[in-house]
């Protein structure tokens, strides 16, 4: 059987991140406000996690609202007209409305309709996953410009009495615009999962169990020690591998931006990677908390605000979390 030769799309050879945008929750929540129900103390939380305060959003502010605000800033700073963005990906685990996707709503709100739009769930690795997808889709010609957002309102899915995770979580959204580049701006991803440890961190019930009265509203919980050991030992190897596939060494980095899970994990990472003193390390967790998929873009946004001289430098970003999923790549900072 003969048929006409099919066309397949091809895109630019390279991509890069053009800009970052951010939106943090409007409430600053100090440790003292959370310690009662978990019988803890400000000192214990600071020692264990490095968190002093975290941002959370008021009842009337949804994750999609945070995503919209972060997106608008990223688009404005990118110089790309909103109507030229033809791909919107939102990484999130806290869209409490299963459908429509947050991404479709945000695309309409920011003026990118009728962009291809979808949400992706890879928990704390979600932003890295979404960047990997946007990079690949632009380089194959399936999209021209992408808006990638990590957006979470984790205060909707937290049990204030849960000692394993409740005091860690914050609300916020971070966004980037990605598009074609004359030189390489996003390295190959080192990404994957380990479903054998799926019980280590995740939701404690299903929506059908909640509906049937068999469980309370599903909330996040974790086995702290399991997650800590996995993050420190296995993820340090992933970070090293990400440097290898990017073709660089730790000495070439200007910044290290890990998922803001725990200050002790960040410190241990830096040791294992043997980062030179010159590398600026993101420590946004101290005042933002753990915002899952939003944490890397939020931390990067703050880093660029505080250290504008990092622009043009190389940053290693690594996300890891529930699933257990992970994703890492080196990016050129805008």
Q: How would you summarize the topology of this molecule?
A:
Blueprint lengths: L13 E11 L2 E4 L11 H8 L3 E4 L6 H16 L8 E5 L10 H9 L5 E5 L5 H14 L6 E8 L17 E11 L8 E4 L7 E3 L3 H5 L8 E3 L1 H23 L8 E4 L4 H11 L6 E2 L3 H4 L6 H12 L7 E8 L3 E8 L2
Parallel strand pairs: 4-5, 4-6, 11-12, 11-13
Antiparallel strand pairs: 1-7, 2-3, 6-7, 8-14, 9-10, 13-14
Helix pairs in contact: 2-3, 6-7
Describe the structure.
It is a single chain. The chain contains nine helices and 14 strands. By secondary structure, it is of the alpha/beta class. The strands form four sheets. It has a five-stranded mixed sheet with strand order 1-7-6-4-5, with helices on both faces. Strands 8-14-13-11-12 form a five-stranded mixed sheet, with helices on both faces. Strand 11, helix 7 and strand 12 (280-281) form a beta-alpha-beta unit. Helix 2 packs across helix 3 and helix 6 runs parallel beside helix 7. It is globular, with a radius of gyration of 19 Å. The protein starts with 13 loop residues before the first strand and ends with a strand. The model has no long low-confidence stretch (mean pLDDT 96).
